[in-house]
Amino acid sequence: MNRVPGLRGDHLRLRELHADDHDAFARILTHRVFTRYLGIDRMDARQAHDTFAQSLAQPHTHPRRKYTLAVCALDDDSLVGTMGLLMEDYGSNAMLTSLVLLPGSPVQGYGHEAGRLLMAYAFGHLGVHRIWAGHRSDHSFMPQVMHAAGLRPEATLRQLFRTSGCWHDVTTYAAVAPEWKAQAAPHELAIFDGVARADEARGDASAPVPDQVSSPPVSIG
Q1: What residues form DSSP beta bridges with 163?
Q2: What is the pLDDT of residue 221?
């Protein structure tokens, strides 16, 4: 299996999905508000169940192209959000996807940290050279989340996807491995370089960046 080790930051951690994450995962995908800014329409219960089953099976695929991880608090294994990565079929590129944090969770305000942990793993262990992400252009607080994750603006893609009967523009951002590594924190460098266990490497606390209920580098595929 191609499993991601636990990735531990200063305020949250990422781990592979477990079978008992089903209800929280389905709650995100079936909720009108939580899915508002994602590149998918709100799902019904059956669709959410099937999506969870597919996500749970990702570590068993070869080669693995999709990584859907649980976001958890440092001292609680409960799923309080999701963070994803999609390996692209050309070049050495990957896309951050589907960052959603449940309201009232202790990790709210640290969505950028989830992105940074997964980027450190992708740039290092997976050997990705370029990582990009996007958000709906009307998602007004996302630029500061992208900047905090170490991503820089690139372009606006007009009417890229359609949800709730409307076409949406997407603003894109990207980072390349050498530049991102130069500004990484010590615990991120440990993950990047593989010199320490990812679930034990820690760094200095960073200031929070405001999140709302859903604050994704948007999934557009």
Answers
A1: 166
A2: 37
pTM > 0.85: yes
In the Cβ-directed half-sphere of 207, how many Cα atoms lie within 13 Å?
6
**Mean pLDDT, rounded, of the chain:** 88
**Closest Cα to residue 101, out of 119, 80, 85, 76?**
80
CB atoms < 10 A from the CB of 84, how many? 21
Q: Measured between alpha carbons, how far is 77 from 71 in angstroms, rounded to an integer? A: 9
Q: How far, in Å, CA of 28 to CA of 132, rounded?
A: 23
Own/partner pairs, 41-50, CB within 8 angstroms, 24+ separation: 41/163, 41/164, 49/22
Q: Bin 207: left if φ > 0, else alpha if -120 < ψ < 50, else beta.
A: beta
Residue from 28, 11, 34, 104 nearest 68 by CA: 28
Q: Give the burial string for 152-189 (b: 16+ CB within 10 Å, else e).
A: eeeeeeeebbebeeeebebbbbbbbbeebbeebbebbb
For residues 137 and 142, give the distance between their C-alpha atoms in angstroms, rounded to a whole number.
9
CA distances for 36 relative to 68, 70, 163, angstroms: 19, 19, 9
